[in-house]
Design a protein that fits this description.
By secondary structure, the chain is an alpha/beta fold. It has 2 domains: 14-277, Alpha-Beta Barrel (TIM Barrel), CATH 3.20.20; 286-352, Type Iii Antifreeze Protein Isoform Hplc 12, CATH 3.90.1210.10. The protein is 32% helix and 16% strand. It is built from 12 helices and 12 strands. The protein has helices spanning 34-47, 59-62, 81-87, 93-106, 117-123, 140-147, 162-174, 199-207, 226-233, 260-277, 289-294, 330-333; strands at 7-9, 12-14, 21-27, 51-56, 109-114, 130-132, 153-156, 180-185, 212-217, 238-242, 298-301, 316-319. The longest helix has 18 residues, at 260-277. The chain starts with 6 loop residues before the first strand and ends in a 21-residue tail after the last helix.
Length: 354
């Protein structure tokens, strides 16, 4: 694959010139409630997201009971990974099937990140592609199992080296996964603005020219959504951010998530930028016709010229509007003879000179 190719993610065809594929990551912000999950899905759809993404796991298969926290304890005052994950792992296969059907009903892609083998089997029939979390970039058993499902894969680079990323990609490819996209990510909850390092998007594009590059964000959403808008401007073709209906909640990922208004603002920004970027062309716009005519110049007399007088740089001048002889013919006009008297500030026509 090269930059001229495309990749299909769910219902959307992604190209180098397309708008980004926006993933509203509900994660476990549904807090084990199907009705709340549906509410969040609705808000994501209305806000302009292309997909919603949940997280599928069982705490026992994800973290040891003695695993320490790696998030901001002021925001989420739970010191054990296991306790936090256990708190939100209540959904079962039937719940994911119901939510998948609901997404299909309202026309938004359903996704979920699987964190263990059994979870992959649950979501595989329901998702158009798989997402591998940053923390699992070295979880080769999981990567290999996902790759063998034969679906496209998004993989986040958070907290990893380029070598680790390359090793993960090689493993996916060697197990029959060919459609891979890479997401720049900083694995801090939250990520400080000056740690975002959006230049990594450009770097990854150069380092991995055969793959589409995106961005998975964990910063606090700024009022103008400039972080994600800037990521799009740097070339991110996939944008993923946690999504909530209440950023004030302390549980799990609410505190660094975007809400409906943030998502709506992001989509507005992208649509406006897309309008600004426009298309490439060799001609000019129809709307510029009047400017070509009235703002360009024609050759005028700079003083009265008598019949038989030779035109020179002292008696002619380029002036607006451009509805006469263009000054691109200036060298051809110099030395010509006036065939009649011409007033000062008169538009010179070809029939007036010889």
């Amino acid at each position: 694959m090269n930059l001229k190719d495309h990749i299909r993610l769910g219902s959307k065809k992604i190209t180098q010139n397309s708008k980004p594929y926006i993933i509203a990551e509900i994660g476990v912000n549904h807090e084990n409630s199907l009705s709340r999950a549906k509410k969040l899905i609705n808000l994501a759809k209305k806000g302009g997201a292309d997909a919603v993404k949940l997280q599928t796991y069982k705490a026992e298969k994800l973290a040891s009971k003695h695993s320490p926290a790696y998030w901001d304890l002021k925001q989420v005052p739970i010191k054990s990974q296991y306790k936090l994950f256990k708190k939100f792992d209540h959904f079962n296969k039937e719940d994911y099937v119901k939510l998948s059907k609901y997404c299909k009903k309202i026309n938004i892609d359903f996704l979920s990140t699987a964190f263990d083998i059994e979870s992959v089997d649950i979501i595989n029939p329901l998702v158009p592609f798989h997402k591998i979390a940053s923390a699992d970039i070295t979880n080769f058993p999981l990567l290999k199992y996902i790759a063998k499902k034969g679906k496209p894969v998004l993989i986040s680079k958070g907290a990893s080296t380029i070598k680790e990323l390359m090793n993960a990609i090689q493993l996916l490819k060697s197990n029959n996964c060919r459609k891979i996209s890479i997401l720049h990510c900083i694995l801090n909850y939250p990520t400080k603005y000056d740690h975002s390092n959006l230049e990594m998007i450009s770097y990854l594009k150069k380092k991995f020219p055969k793959y589409f590059i995106g961005y998975s964000d964990h910063t606090f959403p700024d009022s103008n959504m400039l972080v994600l808008t800037s990521a799009y401007m740097k070339g991110a073709k996939i944008i993923e951010k946690h999504f909530t209906d209440n950023k004030k909640l302390k549980n799990n990922d609410h505190f660094h998530s975007m809400d409906f208004n943030d998502l709506k603002k992001l989509v507005e920004n992208i649509n406006f930028i897309d309008k600004l970027l426009g298309k490439k062309f060799d001609n000019f716009l129809k709307s510029e016709n009047i400017s070509r005519k009235n703002a360009r110049r024609s050759v005028y007399t700079s003083r009265k010229i008598y019949k038989g007088e030779i035109l020179n740089e002292k008696n002619i001048i380029p002036k607006r509007p451009g509805n006469g002889i263009s000054p691109i013919h200036w060298d051809k006009i110099i030395g010509k003879k006036a065939l009649k008297n011409l007033k000062e500030d008169a538009l010179i026509k070809w029939k007036d000179i010889k």
